[in-house]
Amino acid sequence: xxxxxxxxxxxxxxxxxxxxxxxxxxxxxxxxxxxxxxxxxxxxxxxxxxxxxxxxxxxxxxxxxxxxxxxxxxxxxxxxxxxxxxxxxxxxxxxxxxxxxxxxxxxxxxxxxxxxxxxxxxxxxxxxxxxxxxxxxxxxxxxxxxxxxxxxxxxxxxxxxxxxxxxxxxxxxxxxxxxxxxxxxxxxxxxxxxxxxxxxxxxxxxxxxxxxxxxxxxxxxxxxxxxxxxxxxxxxxxxxxxxxxxxxxxxxxxxxxxxxxxxxxxxxxxxxxxxxxxxxxxxxxxxxxxxxxxxxxxxxxxxxxxxxxxxxxxxxxxxxxxxxxxxxxxxxxxxxxxxxxxxxxxxxxxxxxxxxxxxxxxxxxxxxxxxxxxxxxxxxxxxxxxxxxxxxxxxxxxxxxxxxxxxxxxxxxxxxxxxxxxxxxxxxxxxxxxxxxxxxxxxxxxxxxxxxxxxxxxxxxxxxxxxxxxx
Length: 471
Ligand code: NAP
Hints:
Layout: E1 9-15, H1 23-33, E2 38-44, H2 50-59, E3 64-67, E4 81-82, H3 84-89, E5 94-98, E6 103-107, H4 110-120, E7 129-133, H5 137-148, E8 153-158, H6 161-175, E9 180-184, H7 188-194, E10 201-205, H8 223-226, E11 229-234, H9 243-250, E12 254-256, H10 259-274, H11 280-294, E13 300-304, H12 311-319, E14 324-327, H13 328-336, H14 340-347, H15 349-366, E15 370-373, H16 382-391, E16 392-398, H17 401-408, H18 422-440, E17 443-446, H19 452-470
Parallel strand pairs: 1-2, 1-3, 4-6, 7-8, 7-10, 8-9, 10-11, 11-12, 13-15, 13-16, 14-15, 16-17
Antiparallel strand pairs: 3-5, 5-6
This protein binds NADP nicotinamide-adenine-dinucleotide phosphate (NAP).
């Protein structure tokens, strides 16, 4: 439990509404991981009380605030000064305490947050032709980023064309260059004539179309459009794969959601308040927590652990208690029409890990109340570890090297042990994998001296305790 004392610093969020915000996950996770004596709290503030809320927050000693809808524009007039990016966009999402000015300085971390997100995915905008779909608050930050990052031509398309035109005019004037053009959403077809066949678009999806629960909505449904898209960023992060992203991927392009943008805008605000730099490793840890907050685990049981740790045997016992049983290696062998060894021999390990990721995504969509026994290398990919936790409660069956060796030494079907020194290889692999298993799991069980029946019973006990807690 978090310790609050007279020295605890307070940061927070103001908006209307704030009930569903994920920002506390970002900031309180960072406070916990860095052992900072600081807490982050959402405050519901209506427009009529915005000014009083900000002056009151200063008097209460609040260190910093995030600002969300509908206050991002109004708050620009209530700050001691504006950072140049916030001024250029005309919106503030972060307030940083300014003792000299007796108030708060306004920043916009949405734009640098998105830039950090796309950069981390290896995307650059210089010289690209960009389409922005939507012209609301978020689209403004995207428009500024595209101008600043030297995109060649930027089309901004919106249902209400006047709003797109206002953003284009503002950006062209601000940067003194006519690189941005506005059009209505339906005019996307005209763009095909302007773009040579070989040069495809980078598209930012900034409308609210496709946001959960309206998962099937998209601003444009025409596949001819998506054939022209090489990279598509949807600012929406729930669902994890929007209709827009599905279209982009099925036309052969790369697609990303807005979760990293959310992460990095929060991290940049945190860095401003605490005058620190957050490492990429820490950022990944917080990303995992955000992902889990959006995608809670379903009622499956997922067994992970080294080869020979007993996952299949324990799975078979759990099956007798009403769970269906899926072995991911069997599942993959069936879907690929080859044994695991043949997949490794024909396509290599990287391909196999790719198939594992695809398998997990399928199982998340289709599986309930099942025990999923996984291949030993399944959690090695960070994405897989995340997907496993979405699939169900992850149990790490932990067995020592000697136990493993005794169980697998006569088994010739294990591709990773086809070498001169299989025992040494087990040692090496376990050193590498143990911390990954521990990190991926929700719970672990030492298995050397426990029978498979005892392991299964313990899992069922804990699981029923959890179910009761939730009832
Ligand atoms: P906003 O200011 O309310 O703008 C909404 C946009 O969606 C407008 O362009 C609006 O067009 C368009 N739109 C709404 N319904 C439409 C429909 N039926 N057909 C066509 N267009 C429609 O919202 P915002 O703050 O810009 O946010 C936009 C999206 O980005 C939201 O889904 C939000 O969740 C997401 N977002 C993500 C992050 C992140 O960190 N990842 C940050 C900010 C926002 P009109 O102008 O014609 O109404």
